[in-house]
Structure formats: C-alpha cells, structure tokens
Amino acid sequence: MKTIGVLAFQGGVIEHVKKIEELGAKPQLVKKKEDLKNLDGLILPGGESTTIGKFLIETGLKDEILSLIHEGMPVWGTCAGAILLSKNIKNQGSGVLPALSIVIERNAYGSQLDSFKKEVFVPRFNIATECVFIRAPKIVEVAEGVEVLAELETPIAVLQKNILATTFHPELTSQNYWHSFFVENVVK
Ligand SMILES: NC(=O)CC[C@H](N)C(=O)O
C-alpha cells in the first residue's frame, strides 16, 4: 500500500487525508522529520504560504523535504503548496521549497471574496474537473520541461517530473481525478 504524507501544520489537511483513504492509500500526517520516513509521496496543502513556510523553516523540515524532492520523491502542492514549491514568486523572491521552475503570483484573482468554482477540461484526463479557487495564485510563467496539464487563461495545473502543482483545491470537491492522478501516475 502506498503511503502519502500530508504536511499538517495548517490549511486543508483533513480533506486531503480523506481523499487518500478513499483511494485505498495510507495517509501520514507530517509535522516533524521522522514523519517523512518511508513516504511514497507528499502533499503540501493550501492555507497561507507564509505561515506554512515559517513552520517548514522552524522545524527544519524545509531542508529535508527539499532534498527528498531532489532525490525524486513525488510531491504535490495545492494553492499555497504550489507557492511554496515555486522557484520564483512574483515580487517576493522564491518559495521555501524552490523546486518547480515557474513564476507564480500570489492572490492574483483578488481577495477572499473573489474566490470561485469552475469546471475546467483537462486533456490528460479527457474530462472536465471541478476547480475551486480560494485567494488563488496565478502561474504567470513556466520554464521548458514544465508540462501544463490544465489552463484557465493561464496554467492552473503543471507537472515537472516528480512535482505536481495546482493553483486550485481538488480536495474540496467530491471528485477524485487529481488525487488519483497523483497517487497512481506521479507516485509510481
Ligand atoms: N487557498 C490558498 O492556499 C491560498 C493561498 C494564499 N493566498 C497564499 O498566498 O498563501
């Protein structure tokens, strides 16, 4: 059985845990270095990227996770998680786990009130998936080697080898397409 970690400092943790269980994999809450042992993949949930970033630095998890990602551990950042993974945050330097070759802009759709839901067709799945955007970032540039999996004017889901990032929250819908893509195809 695959074990999928969920970074559990803050944000949409429980929703990801439920999806992992639904798919028959084993969730593992990650709060300290020991929790990273024997993971097949790791999810960085949405929340507030600056807050989660501070926890990553204070606990020393930042360096551990970054080296695991460089060694090929599959990782998926949703919303704030995608910001943490970005090599370039527009006007703000880089994410705390700068592994993904994109430029991302925080809160690019406006305030909490500008949060929205949209069905977006995903060519790789050949189906439209429901996407929930909450104070979402926008991916404004992708480097060569980064595959765009879904777009809503700008890329909203990208894959670079073992790194998946979505600017929306699939864990807040009743669908499992994105979780099963991560667990079955990104985690091997
Ligand atoms: N839903 C989310 O994860 C929002 C991300 C948040 N706006 C940030 O910049 O960290």
UniProtKB/TrEMBL annotation:
One of its GO terms (biological process) is pyridoxine metabolic process. Belongs to the glutaminase PdxT/SNO family. Its EC number is 4.3.3.6, 3.5.1.2. The active site is at C79, H169, E171. In the presence of PdxS, forms a dodecamer of heterodimers. Only shows activity in the heterodimer. Catalyzes the hydrolysis of glutamine to glutamate and ammonia as part of the biosynthesis of pyridoxal 5'-phosphate. The resulting ammonia molecule is channeled to the active site of PdxS. PROSITE patterns: GATASE_COBBQ (PS51274), GATASE_TYPE_1 (PS51273), PDXT_SNO_1 (PS01236), PDXT_SNO_2 (PS51130). This is Pyridoxal 5'-phosphate synthase subunit PdxT. The keyword Hydrolase applies. GO terms for cellular component: cytosol; glutaminase complex. Keywords: Glutamine amidotransferase, Hydrolase, Lyase, Pyridoxal phosphate, Transferase. It catalyses: L-glutamine + H2O = L-glutamate + NH4(+); aldehydo-D-ribose 5-phosphate + D-glyceraldehyde 3-phosphate + L-glutamine = pyridoxal 5'-phosphate + L-glutamate + phosphate + 3 H2O + H(+). It comes from the Bacteria. GO terms for molecular function: glutaminase activity; pyridoxal 5'-phosphate synthase (glutamine hydrolysing) activity; transferase activity. The lineage of its organism: Bacteria, Bacillati, Bacillota, Bacillota incertae sedis, Caldicellulosiruptorales. HAMAP family: PdxT (MF_01615). Pfam families: SNO. L-glutamine binds at G47, E48, S49, R106, I134, R135. Pathway: Cofactor biosynthesis; pyridoxal 5'-phosphate biosynthesis. InterPro entries: Class_I_gatase-like (IPR029062), PdxT/SNO (IPR002161), PdxT/SNO_CS (IPR021196).
